[in-house]
Write a sequence for this structure.
């Protein structure tokens, strides 16, 4: 059974890796960075406990990934998030689910609102965004 937390983690990892692996082909570096870095900062600014939870979730997602480049990018993301800074242990309002939902919405809004000159809407289809948000099954 897939949990909501796993589904959100998978969507966030899939979107970040899709955006980053598309750089140079159809997506300028500055546009990709503008989409992914604020989300990574959001994920990394949480409490140690939440970052640890995110790191574990992202590693599970990475282990499930079959494409080597995407798998490596997912593990790198897990290591980056779980290893950032000392964190704020007093944060009780930051739950992993809430942080993942915010990250997912931020990424989706950035993709949706991207200038068509910088980010061709057809790129979304080529980068597996439909699968990441559950619009298309991977069967």
């Amino acid at each position: 059974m897939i949990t909501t937390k796993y589904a959100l983690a998978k969507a966030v990892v899939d979107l970040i890796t899709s955006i980053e692996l598309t750089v140079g082909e159809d997506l300028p570096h500055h546009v990709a960075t503008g989409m992914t870095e604020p989300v990574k900062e959001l994920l990394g600014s949480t409490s140690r406990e939440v970052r640890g939870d995110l790191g574990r979730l992202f590693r599970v997602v990475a282990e499930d990934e079959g494409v080597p480049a995407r798998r490596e990018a997912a593990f790198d993301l897990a290591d980056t998030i779980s290893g950032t800074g000392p964190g704020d242990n007093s944060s009780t309002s930051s739950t992993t689910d809430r942080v993942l939902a915010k990250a997912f919405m931020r990424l989706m809004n950035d993709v949706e609102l991207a200038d068509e000159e910088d980010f061709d809407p057809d790129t979304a289809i080529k980068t597996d965004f439909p699968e990441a948000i559950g619009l298309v099954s991977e069967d």
Q: What stands out?
A: Helices lie at 4-22, 29-44, 48-64, 68-82, 96-113, 121-126, 129-132. The radius of gyration is 14 Å. The CA atoms of residues 34 and 110 lie 9 Å apart.
